[in-house]
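As a warm-up, study this chain.
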Amino acid sequence: MTSHDDGRRVRIGAADGEALGPERFAEQDGVRLCYQAVGAPAWPTMILIGGMGASMDWWPTDLCVALADGGRRVVRYDHRDTGRSTTGAPGDPGYTARDLAEDPLRVLDALQVDRAHLVGLSMGGGIAQELAVEHPGRVASLTLISTSAALDRSDGTPLPGPAPGLADLWGGPGPGPGEAAAVEAAVREDRLLTAGGRFDEQRTRAIARRAVHRSIDPAASANHATLAPGPPVRGALADIGAPTLVVHGDRDPLFPGHGERLAAEIPGARLLVLARTGHQVPPPHTWGRLLPAVLEHTA
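Now compare it with the structure written out below.
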């Protein structure tokens, strides 16, 4: 257990992503988004935006608590078609990528937060970039983890492609029926994306079990890979005015070297390269560097 200044005691979960306080729902425009928040409402709010097909469980509870212990109100949420958020039929999402990108604002509206620090992983980093140019008044800062450019770059040279074996990671047939098959598929994906970084199978499997068990329909998360783009985003990386920290693993097999290029394109951005880290939520062995950097950046 850990205590916070608002008097609320929060249970520190193990690697299985044990719940951080009550699950709540933001409901707006017919969309229902499940979220959790830990930390005093008076503290600066940090919203964690997950990657493609990922529920909030993939932001580990112990990482959320460590950030909250640094004096942040930490919010994590289920994307549409993941966890307990609005879920449609697999193969028929009924919304666009632009709709998905607006969902963090719906969660912040439910919390009555006008401006927050955005921490985005992979696809979530792309969402954070888009919000920074479309809604700059609502973005206090950006922390972009294991991600790539989602907006136009001034440097027209192509970015390096993914490592062999990853290009079709999300393009093949989905896992077989049942929770066990979905868990195995999630563990396999995480193992491939971790590449030469540190892969903790026990920790990953525990998170995957919880994520699958919480999901209304685990197969629906594949909808993210099929989304139409929706209305174009008006802006480029050079238009981002929010203070930006780019965090990238030195062994990221999906976006090799993209962190350096991203930091070079965003005005004033800083780069933190994590050793022995692939395309993943920064693992515990990196937190000695990650936590001080993120807390300083969001101070």
